[in-house]
Structures are given as C-alpha cells and as structure tokens.
Amino acid sequence: MNRKILGREAVQEALDVSLQRDKDVILIGQGVPDATQTYGTTAGLVDKYGTDRVYEMPLSESAMAGVMLGASLVGARPVMTFARLEFFLLAIDPIINQAAKWCYMFNAQTHVPMTLRLIIGRGWGQGAQHSQSLHSWFAHIPGLKVVLPATPYDLKGLLIASIEDPNPVIFIEHRWLHYNHGHVPEGYYKTPLGIPNLIRKGDKATVVSSGYMTIESIKAVNNLNKQGIEVDLIDLRTLSPLDDTIILESVKKTGNLVVCDHASLTGGFSSEIITRVCEKSFGSLKNSPIRISLPDSPTPTTRGLANYFYPTVKHIENAVKSLLGIKTEDPFKDIKPTDKLDIPDQSFKGPF
Amino acid sequence: MSFMKDKGLADLSLKKEVNSPLQKKMFFDILRIRRIEEEISRQYSDQEMRCPVHLSIGQEAIGVGVSANLKPGDYVMSGHRSHAHYLACGGNLDKFIAELYGKETGCTNGLGGSMHLIDKSAGFLGSVPIIGSTISIATGLAFETKRRKKSNVTVVYFGDSATEEGVFYESLNFAKSLNLPILYVCENNEMSVETPFSKRRHQQQKIVDIANSFNIESLCSDGQICEGVYGNAKYLIEGIRCGEGPKFIELMTTKLVEHCGPKIIGMESEGVCDPLTYYKEKLLNDKIIIQKDIDVYEMDIQEEIKKAFDKAKKAKFPSRDKLKANIFYKGEK
Ligand SMILES: Cc1ncc(C[n+]2csc(CCOP(=O)(O)OP(=O)(O)O)c2C)c(N)n1
C-alpha cells in the first residue's frame, strides 16, 4: 500500500480527482493542454475531460485572472496554472485588489473559489525573472490563502483541499518538487489547510520549514540524527491560514528555533514565525532563533554565483549545531563555482 | 520561393534601394548568425551553457533586415528570443558566448544569461523574458528621446504572443498619442511554445490590423526575405525619423528550432522558407556573390566563432563577492 510516485504525478492526480469529483472545476493556463502539459502535471487531462474543462490560455495573464474571477462568481471553480510565479505578477490587480477582497467588500454575498498554481523555477540559469519566491508577500494579503506543499503526499492532498476551498488560494509549487518521489495514496484524500505537519521528532531544537526547503530540511535532520541530534521538524504546509500551536509547543520543549525559508531574508515569513514565538512564548527560548533563507538579492543566472545563492543542507545542519554550541565551518566551504548544483537530479538535462 | 507570398501579404519589393555591398552585408550577417546559433546548438549538449536558450534559427532575416536601417544612437530592445537581434545590431560576440557560459566576461558578467542580453555600445539596451515587458519599456526610450529632442529611433522586437498582453495595446495607445519615434516589430512565427496562433486568436484577426486600428502606420510582410524586411523597415524608419510617430510591422516567419533548447527542426519540411538558403540562392543567381566569396566568409566566421567559444570556456566565473555587488547602483547620479 506504500505506493511511491513523483511529485508531478501527485499534482496530476490531484487535478484528475478534482475534475472527476466536481464538474465545476476547470483548468486553464499556458501549455496546460498542449504537448508539454505543464511538466507532465496536466498529462492526459484534456483528453479525459475535454476542451470545455481544460483550456489553453492566451498570453493575457491579467485579463484572464479577472475572467476566471468572474467565472468563479457564477459557478466555476477555476484552477489557473502559471508556469512561473513571475507570469502571475502580471495578474496582480485581479487577484490582490479584487479576488482577495471580494468576499469582504461585498460582505460574503459572493465568493471566489479559485486556485492559482504558481510554479517557482530554480537552477539551469533560471535567473532573476524565473525563480522568485514571493509567498511571504502573498501571505501579507488578507483574503488570500497561501499554500506551500513539500512532499508528494501534500502536493496532492493540499491541492485537492485548495481546489475545494471556497476562497482564492495561491498554491506554490517549487519546480524541483516535481522530481521528488514519495508516498501518495490513490484516489481522493485531503490535507486540511492551516495545520502544520510534524515530520520528525526530537527534543534538541525545533526546525520550522516550508515548501522545497522542507525537502532540504528532511535531509539535514536525517544527517543530524546520524550524529545523535534529535530535533522536531515542522513543515508549515500553509502560511495563511496558520495554526501555530504545534510550533509553540515544540519550542517550549526544545528552547531552540531554526526557521528555514526558500525566499529572501528581509521581511520574509521566517520573521513571522519567530515573532509569533517571541510574542507568545518568549520565555521558552534558550537561544536567539536562527533564520536560514536566500540572500537579499535577485537570483543570479550563472551557476558560478547561484551555487552560493541557495542555502544547502549543511546550512540547516550547522544552524542547529550552533544553537547547541557545536562549532561549525562555512557551509559553502567545499562548494566550487564549477559544481553542477543547479539541477534537481541527474535526469534533468535543461533547459526548463 | 517563400510560402508567405502565396498568402498575398504586402511586400514592397525594392528595386533601386539595395545595392550589392548592402546585399552582401545582409547575407553575411544572416550566415554569421546562423553559424553562431548552430554552434550553440551543437555545444549545448556538453551541459556547460546552463541557461535556457531560445535560438533564432529561421528568423534571422528580420533582425538583419531591420538593423541595416539603424544608425549610431538608435536603441534596440527585445524579448526571450533575442540572439539575432543582439548580433544583427552589432552586439559583441565574445561577450554573448561568454554570457551563455555564465562567465565574468559575459555581457552581463554572467548575471543574466541568454534571456538577458545587453550591449550598450551597439544601442542594444536589453532583452528580458517576461513576455511584453520590453514593449512598454522601449516605448519609454522613445518617449525620452523625443522629450530630449533627439533624432534617434527605437526598435522593439517581440513575438506574436506578446500582442495578447494588455501592455501591447496600452503602449501603442500612448506611443500614438505622443507620436513617439518607435518601430514595433512583431515576429509572427504563429507559435507560442507549443500552442499555435489559431488557438489563441480568432481566425479572422490579424495582428497588423490591431496596430492599424490605433491609426499607426503598419505593414505586414514576409520575414524570410531579407531584402523585403529591409525595404519595409526602411520605409517605416525613414518616416519615423521624419517625425511621423510610431510605426508597426508584422513579419511572418518560421522558427526552425524547438521553442527552447538546442534542437534544430528540419528546414526541408514542405512550405518552409529558410531565409539563409533563399537569400544565398538569390544572390548566386543574380551574380551578386560567387560561391568562393561564401566559402572564404564561412572560414572567417568559423574562426571567429571558435575563438569566441574558446575564450568563453577559458574565462572565469564571476567571483563570489559579485553575488550582491550590484543590487543597487552605486555610481555617480
Ligand atoms: C508574461 C509571460 N507569460 C508567459 C511566459 C512563458 N513563455 C515564454 S516564451 C512564451 C511563448 C512566446 O511566444 P512568442 O512571443 O510568440 O515568441 P516565440 O517564442 O514564438 O519567438 C511563453 C508563453 C513568459 N515568459 N512571460
């Protein structure tokens, strides 16, 4: 029963199950029905459900987000896919000004059940305009739900839950998660929005992480375990809504907090986590918390610099160790500019 | 023969305008860009040019024909498929190849890659891969040149898909209302990644008609025939230089490569006009050029290309301190 599939297959199954269960669900996006099928995440769906359920989209992100908002007001449950988060930025008005406020402004007389899948690129020279992680920014907008799946299990469960949610949901899919294997049940199930997941247990420190960073954190925690250091690893799953109970309980137990976020440092969501811990449980902290994030810089294209842009498993390991008073070295020490760290695995040969 | 002509598109043919030195120059420019792109395609599988590449193969005649009308001081901008535009207006080859390899000697010192080219000395002020973005930015270049009472012209290249973005309409409107000196060049290869034009626009709509409806003088012609491109662009650019305001040209073309990546798809398919083969045959036929000239030139470019690749491979990656060096401009105001 422990079926393992790829992340991109998990996304495809979530879309398939949702289209199957609710005839109001429609998919739209550039390349969603075409030969590339959004990296395989929409494979076979246009054949199965037809062109009045699965739509191609012109290069009109702004208007189309508005069109889908309108459709959602009168019955549709649209799932829009943006092959890069950046392309969604053209649709800021209909989503931030309109969709996020619609329910509130009209006092819940109408609502906007739409899901926006935003894919974050990384590696192979994605550069400044194909790799941004802006979830913290979206989480700052009241009226938007922000979902950051990590495991294949959650890619499926959280996507189904996002599509069923009666509100606008930003579902952020890191491209490298598509390459990850993991346990995924067949058929229908949901991962509820708002409840973080305790992935590993331990009492030395609390590691809070989300999205792709959780995959790195799992590796780091496994390495720490081998060295006899047991920590709690909490995967946020959603930034908004967020029930922080489990985080506060964990920090009470461990007294040490590391927050990992695949986004630039300043004003990032890790600050929100640390603030909540400080506000609600300051006394339980034995040490100052540590943030692991991307630098406050646009993404460089060349791997010669990108190799020093993305924090590594070592960064997370070292952060925990330093809280425990263990000396560590520069985590980039052994990384050379020529290293080919810019691919999710060997199966990836470029270019997107 | 070009398949475009059969579609009955406007193609102002040139009689006196082109002379043999110009014809040779344009042919050699197409040939050079083709050989450069082919070399990128060949070497891409070594997995050392680690950035997405959108090759210009099949579309070279457009950049070459338009650029032959540009003067020092003119500006050029483009989008994700910009190699030909950059090279045709004089963008530096060594810096371009080094950029693909992510080296410090690249035209953005490795920070940008294939989709973010720049060569200020050639007037090429930048290409970016967010579809449509440079349409308004280039309109801004034209706005400021006009405000400064300068006589230079701005050219912006974009694909057919960019005309689906709101920014296209908003920019045309503004450019017309202020009569800005800009030429909008739409390269219509009738594809957006894997999606044909017909799935994104109503059959009866033509891009050129959109621009016309803004009362912007607009032409649609064959983008595979370099002299036609040159002549139409000349007509429009001269008008712009005389203060007639924005102009638009839609050039029908064919991408002879996969959307993104190194794969070249056959030139032999029926109905496809390869701008290089077409022009070569024409110039040989018309005795403007002889095969020996071509052979000599081929050797020269091979040499130039080989040097550029060798230098790029030997060059260093930017040093680690460059990661955050230029987030803000720290030079003089
Ligand atoms: C705003 C935006 N949306 C989507 C994309 C993804 N994308 C990159 S190239 C492309 C198709 C471009 O087609 P076209 O502009 O006609 O140029 P071509 O590639 O055919 O030369 C798309 C959809 C993008 N880069 N920017």
Nutshell version of this structure?
The complex is a heterodimer of chains A (352) and B (333). With 352 residues, chain A is an alpha/beta fold.
> What's the Cα radius of gyration of chain A?
20 Å
Kindly provide the name of the CATH class of the largest domain in chain A. Answer: Alpha Beta
* Domain count of chain B: 1
Largest interface: A-B, 42 and 45 residues
The termini of chain A sit apart by: 33 Å
Instruction: Estimate the mean pLDDT confidence of chain A.
Output: 97
The protein's oligomeric status is: heterodimer
Helicity of chain A, as a percent range: 25-40%
Mean pLDDT rating of chain B:
93
Please report the number of helical segments of chain A. 12
Low-confidence blocks of residues of chain A:
none
- Note the run of SSEs of chain A as H and E: EHEHEHEHHEHEHEEEEHEEHEHEHH
Q: Please, what is the CATH homologous superfamily of the largest domain in chain A?
A: Thiamin diphosphate (ThDP)-binding fold, Pyr/PP domains
Strands of the largest sheet of chain A, in order across it?
A: 3-2-4-5-7-6-12
Q: What are the salient characteristics of this protein?
A:
heterodimer; A: about 350 residues; alpha/beta; Rossmann fold; seven-stranded mixed beta sheet; five-stranded mixed beta sheet; 12 helices; 14 strands; about 20% strand; globular; B: about 325 residues; six-stranded parallel beta sheet; two-stranded antiparallel sheet; 8 strands; binds thiamine diphosphate
